[in-house]
Amino acid sequence: MSKKTSRSLVCPNCGSANIQLWDDQENVKKIKRTTSLNINPLHPLTLFKHNEKVVKKHSKAKLAKGLLTGGVSLLLTGTHNNEAHEYHCQDCGNIWTGK
């Protein structure tokens, strides 16, 4: 048996390394786009400034844990789900989320 390093990506179900990226924005709820006037004097030819902000989904497990601990865990971990990628195993068909 070979040693598996912590950086190698394997299926948690069967241990196979034959996986593919299924979705890379699994926890993105929506993307907010704002436009404002540019008042920066160092960029006189730029009239508008465009900003994008990604709004993440809230983790139901973190919200439940926050209710059980009286809100203490929410101060440390927050409520957003940080696992942004969804993977698919080619061998067993398992789909899971990870970083």
What can you tell me about this protein's structure?
This protein is an alpha+beta fold. The chain has one domain (19-98). The chain contains two helices and five strands; from the N terminus they run βββααββ. It has helices at 60-68, 72-77, and strands at 19-23, 28-37, 48-56, 85-89, 95-98. Strand 4 and strand 5 form a beta hairpin. The radius of gyration is 20 Å and the shape is flat. The model has no long low-confidence stretch (mean pLDDT 79).
How is the quaternary structure best described? single chain
Q: Unreliable segments (pLDDT under 50, ≥5 consecutive)?
A: none
Q: How much helicity do the residues have?
A: 10-25%
What's the end-to-end separation, in Å? 26 Å
**Strand line-up across the major sheet:** 1-4-5
Output the radius of gyration: 20 Å
Please give the count of helices.
Answer: 2
**Sequence of secondary-structure elements:** EEEHHEE
Work out the count of structural domains: 1
The main sheet comes to: 3 strands, antiparallel
Write a compact overview of the structure shown.
This protein is an alpha+beta fold and 99 residues long.
Pick out its properties.
two-stranded antiparallel ribbon, 5 strands, alpha+beta, 2 helices, three-stranded antiparallel sheet
